[in-house]
Amino acid sequence: MTISLHEYISLNRIFFSTKETKQEVIDELVNVSIEDNMVKDLKTFKEALLKRESIMSTGIGYGVAIPHVKLPQIEDFFITICIHKKGVDWGSLDNKPAYLIFLIAGPDNQQEKYLRILAKLTLVIKNPERRKKLMESETKYEVFEIFREF
After folding, report:
1. Predicted confidence (pLDDT) per residue in 108-133, tens digit
2. What is the distance between the alpha carbons of residues 71 and 127, in angstroms, rounded to a whole number?
3. Domains of the chain and any CATH numbers
4. 3-state SS assignment for residue 48
5. Residue 75, pLDDT above cutoff 80
6. Both ends of the chain: CA-CA distance in Å?
7. DSSP secondary-structure letter at 8?
8. Per the CB 3.0–4.6 Å rule, which of 29, 32, 116, 128 could disulfide with 103?
9. What's residue 130's pLDDT?
10. Is the pLDDT of residue 1 over 80?
11. Helix orientation angle between 42-55 and 22-35, rounded to the nearest 10 degrees
12. C-alpha separations of 105 from 34, 48, 68, 71, 78 in Å
């Protein structure tokens, strides 16, 4: 099973944030996902996301956070992308702010597919030049184009 990240990304789920806190950015990620009809139950979705975040921060370092949630109510995987120009404290492993936040959500019974999506995303963002290009993007179209080849 080959994963193409661009299949899980939509222009409707790419946004730029100036919110001050991790909680506010999580609210935005949830709202953008709901507005694009990827999630039906806002309360359950948000609670699951916050519960996962309380276990351990999803800030992986290098200016990146990958919050994620799997629920039976979610029909298929999707990625919502937030670009934060100033950076937001995500409690990251390297104690640096997160500038690139990728919410991965999907059904709870497809662990292998989830791991493949996560692995592919991690591979893409490990590249410092690509991270820089994403952080310097001015439009959601630029962000989308970066993922088109992946």
Report:
1. 999 999 999 999 999 999 999 999 99
2. 30
3. 5-148 (3.40.930.10)
4. helix
5. yes
6. 14
7. G
8. 29
9. 95
10. no
11. 140
12. 12, 10, 6, 8, 6
